[in-house]
Amino acid sequence: MTAIATEQGAVSVRNVRKSFAGRSRKARERLALDGFDLDVRPGEFLCLLGPSGCGKSTLLNLLAGFSEPDSGELAVDGVPVKGPGPERGVLFQTPMLFPWLTTLDNVLYGPRARHERGDDVRRRAVGLLDTVGLGRSQDAYPHELSGGMRHRAAFARVLVNQPRVLLMDEPFGALDAITRVAMQKFLLHLWERDRMTVVFVTHDVEEAVLLGDRICVMSGTPGRTRAVFDIDLPRPRELELTDTLEFVHLKRQVREALEESHA
Ligand SMILES: Nc1ncnc2c1ncn2[C@@H]1O[C@H](COP(=O)(O)OP(=O)(O)OP(=O)(O)O)[C@@H](O)[C@H]1O
After folding, report:
1. 20 CB near ligand 1 (under 6 Å)
2. Which CDD domains does the record match to this protein (predicted)?
3. Comparing C-alpha atoms, which of 174, 140, 175 is closest to residue 156?
4. Considering only CA atoms, which residue is closest to atom 2 of ligand 1?
5. How far is the CA of 93 from the centre of ligand 1 (A)?
6. Helix, strand, or coil here: 185?
7. 222 lines ligand 1 (CB under 6 A)
8. Is the confidence at residue 258, as pLDDT, over 80?
9. Cβ(30) – ligand 1 distance below 6 Å
10. Is the model's pLDDT at 4 over the cut of 60?
11. pLDDT higher for 86 or 83?
């Protein structure tokens, strides 16, 4: 896969408001975000932490172009987000795969939908499946894959579009501890190599400190930025880092900010 230029993938969120109508006349409108600002540098790994309901998924959906703000602006490389686009890859907690397609056909789905059909794209898809350790499972259907394998297949499906920005909503939240660590290692390795911009939502403070360049702790409702932490830990990062004093100290600071955001 071609490396992604690090100067691409700047994300900006300006004064964004997003509300949801109540289900009935009596049910009040819910204000998920109000006056929300965020800048993510090209190639930066930003983690979003915050209490349930503070608007993290709402923000990711807006950046993905799955929904529109009431007001304010969201842009990638200065281009306003007007809908979904292949330059923004989205990964959710539940891997999105079509059950009736093989692993390889799932990966090729996006390029085919854009009428990219040549040998090049097929080679890229096969290469990616190798990279994610599914080289031998290209003909398997999703139900024949383990949970971790399905996550990796969904990853390959997103990466084949060579996104400049990866939007990840608790992608490893449902995995067992061992698979989760394996996926974190895999993501770190991939990001070290390609340096795409990542916006990563998690509830796990340790995961945020291990992965992120910066952590934005949100509070709500409506969602606001409560604290921002620069994580200046050396890279490449390995799991052993979590045992160091520096890591433990940072983790405590972030956890305290998160606890305050629940107050
Ligand atoms: N489609 C929707 N319709 C109505 N209300 C919604 C919708 N999506 C989100 N909300 C509301 O907007 C607010 C923010 O929700 P959101 O899912 O963004 O929070 P979150 O921080 O991602 O929460 P969690 O950590 O639990 O996933 C909540 O009050 C939620 O009930």
Report:
1. yes
2. ABC_NrtD_SsuB_transporters
3. 140
4. 20
5. 15
6. helix
7. no
8. yes
9. yes
10. no
11. 83
